[in-house]
Design goal:
This protein is α+β, with helices and mostly antiparallel strands. It has helices at about 1-5, 10-20, 20-55, 60-70, 80-90, and strands at about 125-135, 140-150, 155-165.
């Protein structure tokens, strides 16, 4: 309002009528001019970011975008400014989901010693161990049993009472 009327009336008179300090008015005027220069610079940076974002299918993050702007357009921007502009305009990087290759089967295969041949010619030739845990609310007794395949006898080796914390 004061800018429009300043062509007809003196600025000091307009400021007195509006009850505004002269120093405050000029500070506001200078700040507004500085912000317009900054907004012009930001608009230029946004155009560069938009072109690079589309060119690289949104895969450039802040650091690569900053480097690309300086390499392609010769403009130097701080990475924090590039981040702010990318975030405000929804140009943040689209992270491609990486596919993990999984080999089928057990990653640590065990050697099959018995090969499903459980018959023996002499006692104590083939023996296996079984560890069984019986879950209860507070205590977990564990029973370890050894099996001998000659006459299929079971030998309870020990029973341990584990106390859950």
């Amino acid at each position: 309002m004061i800018e429009k009327l300043s062509s007809r009336y003196p600025v000091t008179l307009l400021l007195q009528v509006a009850e505004i300090n002269r120093s405050g008015y000029y500070r506001w005027l200078n700040r507004r001019m500085f912000q317009s220069e900054k907004s012009k610079e930001d608009a230029q940076a946004i155009k560069c970011i938009e072109k690079l974002y589309k060119k690289h299918y949104g895969r450039y993050g802040v650091e690569r975008m900053t480097t690309a702007i300086s390499a392609d357009y010769g403009l130097k921007f701080n990475h924090k400014k590039v981040y702010r502009l990318m975030a405000q305009n929804s140009y943040l990087a689209v992270i491609k989901v990486k596919k993990r290759y999984k080999k089928p089967g057990d990653p640590h295969p065990k050697k099959n010693v018995l090969v499903r041949n459980f018959s023996t010619s002499c006692p104590f030739d083939k023996m296996v161990t079984d560890v069984t845990e019986y879950n209860q609310i507070a205590n977990c007794p564990v029973m370890v049993i050894e099996i001998e395949f000659f006459d299929l006898t079971y030998f309870p080796i020990y029973t341990v009472q584990l106390i859950a914390l």
